[in-house]
Amino acid sequence: MKKIGTAIIMAGGKSSRLGFDKQLIRVGENYLIDIIIDNLYKFFDEIIIVTNKNRTYNNKNIIVMEDEIKNVGPLGGLYVGLKKSTSIYSYVIACDMPYINNGYIKYMTNIIKKQKVGYALITQFGQWIEPFNAFYSRGIVKYIEEHLNRGQRSIHSLMKKLEVTYINEKTARRFSPNWEMFYNINTKEELDEYLTFKF
Hints:
This protein is α/β, with parallel strands linked by helices. Helix content is 34%, strand content 26%.
């Protein structure tokens, strides 16, 4: 099994505040998720999309998965994505995060290649964490299952129990001073604001 080679796109949210499936967010003539996919293929040869609303993708190399454990939030998507992954470490991002930072992906990849990393490589934001734009090991699958079986759904609380390698906020801001690489679109207002800025 290769150490790095898989990206997982989380697209299983309810999109209740946005009002429509986030997989259908358009940026000009293209869907945002397709833009994300094209970018990720610069770094990864396997892309897994975890969704509760199946959509047809033109690229046949895409693996589309549905949650095995329903209605448990992002941990359910992480669980099934990591189980399917053919890499030890998988890059994880959400389908509504428009600002992919290639430099930061390279930086994280080099950390994994050159030093010992725990069950995840995650960026800190103050005392909190940014669970996406991060890498996770297949080794946490059993811990996710145990966590969910206890009725716990928080990625943050699970990471506190495990050996995790953290990138501090100061380092991350060298790549993204305004923190846009962790920005996600939740509402119509945020989408309108992003599209206005984009164009």
